[in-house]
Specification:
Number of domains: 3
Radius of gyration: 33 Å
Structural class: alpha/beta
CATH class of the largest domain: Alpha Beta
Number of helices: 12
Number of strands: 9
Order of helices and strands: HHHHHHHEEEEHEHEHHEHEE
Strand content: 5-15%
Helix content: 25-40%
CATH topology of the largest domain: Nucleotidyltransferase, domain 5
CATH architecture of the largest domain: 2-Layer Sandwich
Length: about 375
């Protein structure tokens, strides 16, 4: 056996002894196939067992506290398994990227994506404003007066462009879209501005083709009232609008208030507005009750035309019975319009005692 295998005679003798011991332990011993004959703890030791400091050095490399430290070797480099392995090798520890992966899992690490949780600095009156909005909403709904949530959805490129998300299709036949997202001048962009009726769970969305201005925002509210609101609330005398504090319906935008004055004069209704505190956009009802549902409905579909966008928005449904109507607004809206002090003084605005910059009512001039 020694001549045939090249093994030392002592090694063969030791193997025979091991087999004899194994026969005694296994009643149905039929050879060594599939049965380990190595004693527990035998074999070459793992690198990490011989050098426990490897775990410490690996943790230092992936620890988040090293971010921003210019002396940290991987501060400005992707912390991939191979990069971590290469860095450990440079420190004298010969470990592969697969060993690094096993060690990270063993140490309780996993791949993590960024999570949006920080809302920025909280305004001291943040909670009180939420309570005020809730009280106003309950008051209007109790009186059967409309309460709407308004906002602008993310602008979309119109054309054969990639749209995030996946949809079921025949395997190997994905939707083919443009390689580059260069805007097409003829098709332009789509600006969806939404009005969501909180009580009725109904919404109107205007898909603008020009600019997101206060005129466009109030025109969308006007269309909602004409095509939906007037039928749901035939006896309405006032409307409550909940909105973010920025954009075309921002708290400091004079044109927003001037356009609301025009709308109030046209309808003869009082228009009350409650703005959400800074950095609390996600609390606006329209965000998760309408816009998120629209995004789900058109995921993975190229928005090739404004008509396609309108159809996809109108066919957005939820289990709670959401109803959406949509239309294209092809009007041209001038940007940079300034409202002078004299024009602003003509607006019949009544500011609330609590944060009049966030909470106010615009009354028709006819009253």
């Amino acid at each position: 056996m020694s001549k045939a295998t090249g093994l030392a005679r002592n090694t063969i003798k030791q193997g025979q002894k091991d087999l004899e011991k194994l026969k005694g332990k296994c009643k149905q011993f039929k050879g060594i196939r599939g049965i380990s004959i190595r004693e527990p703890g035998g074999g070459r030791k793992r690198e990490v067992d011989k050098h426990p400091e490897i775990k410490i050095k690996l943790k230092e490399l992936v620890e988040s506290t090293t971010r921003g430290d210019p002396e940290s070797p991987l501060t400005w480099t992707c912390k991939s398994l191979r990069n971590l392995s290469s860095e450990l090798k440079s420190k004298g520890h010969n470990v592969s990227h697969m060993i690094v992966r096993a060690l990270l899992i063993e140490m309780g690490y996993s791949l993590q994506a960024n999570r949006k949780t920080h809302e920025g600095s909280n305004h001291p009156d943040r909670d009180r404003q939420f309570e005020h909005i809730n009280q106003q909403v309950q008051k209007f709904q109790k009186e059967n007066q409309p309460v709407i949530s308004v906002d602008t959805k993310k602008k979309e490129l119109v054309g054969n462009f990639k749209n995030n998300g996946q949809e079921w299709m025949e395997k190997g036949h994905p939707e083919k879209v443009n390689v580059y997202d260069f805007p097409e001048k003829k098709k332009g962009k789509a600006i969806p501005y939404g009005v969501y009726d909180i009580k009725e769970n109904k919404a109107w969305v205007s898909v603008g083709t020009d600019s997101d201005t206060s005129e466009f925002a109030v025109e969308t509210i006007r269309r909602w009232w004409k095509f939906m609101g007037a039928y749901c609330y035939p006896n309405a005398k006032k409307i409550l609008i909940t909105a973010d504090g920025g954009g075309s319906n921002g708290t400091r935008v004079r044109l927003w208030k001037a356009e609301l004055q025009r709308f109030a004069d046209e309808t003869g209704m009082e228009i009350s507005v409650c703005h959400f505190p800074p950095a609390t956009t996600k609390w606006n009802k329209i965000e998760h009750r309408l816009f998120s549902q629209i995004t789900k409905n058109w995921r993975g579909r190229p928005l090739v035309s404004h008509e396609v966008i309108v159809n996809l928005i109108e066919n957005t449904k939820t289990k709670t019975g959401l109803e959406v109507k949509c239309g294209i607004d092809r009007n041209k809206y001038q940007t940079g319009i300034k409202i002078s002090d004299e024009e602003f003084k003509k607006i019949r605005i009544k500011r609330n005692d609590f944060h009049g910059d966030w909470n106010y009512t615009i009354c028709p001039i006819a009253i």
